[in-house]
Amino acid sequence: MSKKQRESLSLKHRFGVEISEAYNTLNDKALEFFAEFDITPQQYNVIAILHSAGALSTSDILEWMLEKNAGVSRLVDRLVKKDMVSKEPNKTDRRLIKVNLTDRGKKLYEEIGKQIHRLEDHVINLTEEELQQLVSLLIKFNSD
């Protein structure tokens, strides 16, 4: 959509277009960045959750996830294949599985942490003040 076409939209419609475009830009850059580590942004989200919270069930991971529609079981299975996480059956209820971060997963989390500024710096070209204002507005927008 051209700049002129966007300017002819109602303000609320333009907001929808601009926020969708911002999401797509962020998502594309995140996909590029995490591909360097052979994982997806969603897989990183699982690793980061486990790093913060420790061992969790897949349903607990889903509660922490940024993307609630993500197939957590598939994400976990892919991370098991990459030796980033391990699955352990619950001793009292075999239907429940605890997911743990492996040493390899911890190392990857630390390595990404050292380099995540590359993604943030590349994508966010706002001043500190503008960024604070945007975050405040998005919190207001997302609140019930």
Automatic annotation (TrEMBL):
This is Transcriptional regulator, MarR family. It comes from Chitinophaga costaii. InterPro entries: HTH_MarR-typ, WH-like_DNA-bd_sf, WH_DNA-bd_sf. One of its GO terms (molecular function) is DNA binding. Keywords: DNA-binding, Transcription, Transcription regulation. Pfam families: MarR. Residues 1-143 form the HTH marR-type domain.
